[in-house]
Design a protein that fits this description.
The protein is of the alpha/beta class. It contains eight helices and seven strands, in the order αααβαβαβαβαβαββ. The structure holds S-adenosyl-L-homocysteine (SAH), 3,4-dihydroxybenzoic acid and magnesium ion. The site of magnesium ion (MG) has 4 residues, from loops.
């Protein structure tokens, strides 16, 4: 495949601003070796997640969709001492690769990986926890985004930041007649978001080594 200009520029940016890191690099290599799909966030996107978490001062982070733990490592490294990432994964193979990657990164203490369907785990978390999350990253199946968004609001406070990955899908998001459940999931989420008075949100399109996609970022503005 010929390299796109945005892949080459992503490489250029990553070479300049995202230095090689043994644990992050190993997480990608081991994920690929185990046959996991190559759908982690890119290095410069991982760093963006980490910067947002640091800017916000997040101590309690929820991630929906762990895969091999690559984005999890970026987020966990943003935590202050005593902070915690809870990450949800339904595929036992992905979870076991992620556990090994997190252990190699020295993050066993600060990351809690919960195996199971997110829609089954989220109600348990809501019941168990006495406090909301500061940052929530939604990055599991795209058909589930509307329900994950509703849970994210339940698990939020005023000031929580919620990020939703993969909301542009090569532009397919504007195709109202799409039969793709991922596209329909994103579209239903967008309708909920537009009508949701408790958040202020925007969506940014992205190009890079993972092609053309985008993410939504929002701030919870009224106690959700
Ligand atoms: N956040 C990761 C990528 C996640 S890929 C990163 O950037 O590094 C999406 C993950 O969500 C996959 O591992 C998939 O198994 C998981 N997933 C899909 N449906 C799910 C569900 N219903 N509950 C929990 N996890 C799910
Ligand atoms: C897919 C999932 C992702 O989280 C991503 O970043 C890219 C693609 C997918 O399921 O196709
Ligand atoms: Mg994603």
């Amino acid at each position: 495949m010929p390299e796109t200009p945005w892949s080459a520029v992503d490489q250029y940016i990553t070479d300049l601003l995202v230095p090689p890191d043994a644990a992050l690099d190993a997480a990608l290599l081991e994920s690929a070796a185990a046959g996991l799909p190559a759908i982690s966030v890119t290095p410069n996107q991982g760093k963006l997640l980490q910067l947002i978490a640091r800017i916000q001062g997040a101590r309690d982070i929820l991630e929906i969709g762990t895969l091999g733990g690559y984005s999890t490592i970026w987020l966990a490294r943003a935590l202050p001492a005593g902070g915690r990432v809870v990450t949800l994964e339904s595929d036992p193979k992905h979870a076991s690769v992620a556990r090994a990657n997190l252990a190699r990164a020295g993050l066993e203490e600060s990351v809690e990986l919960r195996l199971g369907l997110a829609l089954e785990t989220l109600p348990l978390i809501a019941r168990e926890r006495g406090r909301p999350f500061d940052l929530i990253f939604i990055d599991a199946d795209k058909a589930g985004i509307p329900k994950y968004f509703a849970w994210a609001l339940t698990l939020s406070r005023t000031g929580t930041v919620i990020i939703v990955d993969n909301v542009v899908r090569n532009g397919a998001v504007i195709d109202a007649s799409s039969a793709d459940p991922s596209v329909q999931g994103v579209r239903r989420f967008n309708e909920m978001l537009a009508a949701e008075p408790r958040v202020s949100a925007t969506t940014i399109q992205t190009v890079g080594s993972k092609g053309y996609d985008g993410f939504t970022i929002m701030l919870v503005t009224k106690g959700a």
